[in-house]
Design goal:
By secondary structure, the chain is α/β, with parallel strands linked by helices. The chain folds into two domains: about 80 residues, no CATH class; about 130 residues, Rossmann fold (3-Layer(aba) Sandwich), CATH 3.40.50. The protein has eight helices and five strands, in the order αβαβαβαβαβααα. Strand 2, helix 3 and strand 3 form a beta-alpha-beta unit. It is globular and about 50 Å long.
Length: about 220
C-alpha cells in the first residue's frame, strides 16, 4: 500500500499522536539529548539551553542500526557538534558514547549525573512514549520532563529516513510497548483500541521492518 493512501496516512497519524507524548517543561539540572539518526534532536537541545532551561547538556548514544556510517563518530559526538554550531559552549556539553538503546541511554546518563533531581529528556517525537516508559524502570525517582523537536508528522520524514521507514518505526515501537514490559525493559503504557487498530492496519499494509524477524514470521503465517 502506498504512503499516499489516505488510510495509511490516517493510521500513521494515530500512532504519531500516541507516541508523541511530551510533557510540560520547567527548569532542570540537565538537558539530555538521546542520539539517533535525527540531528533535529540536537537543535531542540540547543534551543532549550539557549532559553535557560538547564546549564548542561548530556548527549548520549554510540552507533546503532540506523546510524552506522551516517556520522564520523558516535551519535553523541555528532549531536554535540551540531549544538556547538548552534552556539552552545563546549564546556556546557558532556558526552556519553556507549549507549546503544534507550535503557542504556538512561542508565549511563544516570551514572554520569547521579545528583540530578530534574532532567529534560529530548528525543524524536515518535520516541517520547518509549522514553517515558523506560524511565519508569531505569530512573523512576528523578523528575523527568520529555520533549522533542516541535513539528508535525508531515515534517518528520527525512531524505534518508522516509515516511515508510517512519511508519515501520512507529509500528515496531507499539509492539515494544507490551513486549518490553514482559522483558522488564519498560513500565506499562496503555494501548487503546484506536492505536491497536491502526497498528493492525499498518502491519497488514506491510510496514513491519522494525519488528523482530521472529515476530514478522509469525505475522506472515
Amino acid at each position: 500500500m502506498a504512503a499516499s493512501d489516505r488510510s495509511v496516512m490516517d493510521c500513521a497519524q494515530v500512532l504519531w499522536d500516541y507516541h508523541n507524548a511530551g510533557t510540560p517543561l520547567d527548569k532542570a539540572d540537565i538537558v539530555v539529548g538521546l542520539g539517533s539518526y535525527d540531528l533535529r534532536v540536537a537543535d531542540r537541545c540547543a534551543e532549550l539551553y539557549g532559553n535557560g532551561l538547564a546549564p548542561l547538556i548530556i548527549f548520549t548514544g554510540a552507533t546503532g542500526n540506523w546510524t552506522s556510517g551516517r556520522f564520523a563518530g558516535s551519535e553523541a559526538r555528532a549531536f554535540s557538534e551540531r549544538a556547538v554550531a548552534l552556539g552552545v559552549p563546549r564546556d556546557a556539553i558532556r558526552l556519553e558514547e556507549r549507549a546503544t538503546n534507550i535503557g542504556e541511554n538512561i542508565r549511563f546518563v544516570r551514572a554520569q549525573a547521579p545528583g540530578a533531581g530534574e532532567v529534560i529528556w529530548v528525543t524524536k517525537p515518535q520516541t517520547q512514549r518509549r522514553v517515558s516508559a523506560t524511565l519508569q524502570v531505569n530512573w523512576p525517582d528523578v523528575v523527568s520532563m520529555i520533549t522533542a523537536p516541535q513539528h508535525r508528522l508531515a515534517a518528520q520524514p527525512l531524505a534518508d529516513h522516509s515516511f515508510e521507514a517512519l511508519a515501520a518505526e512507529m509500528v515496531g515501537d507499539v509492539w515494544r510497548m507490551a513486549a518490553y514490559v514482559d522483558k522488564g525493559f519498560q513500565g506499562h503504557q496503555p494501548v487503546g483500541t484506536d492505536v491497536q487498530m491502526a497498528f493492525d492496519a499498518l502491519v497488514a499494509a506491510g510496514f513491519t521492518s522494525h519488528l523482530p524477524s521472529a515476530v514478522r514470521s509469525l505475522l506472515d503465517r
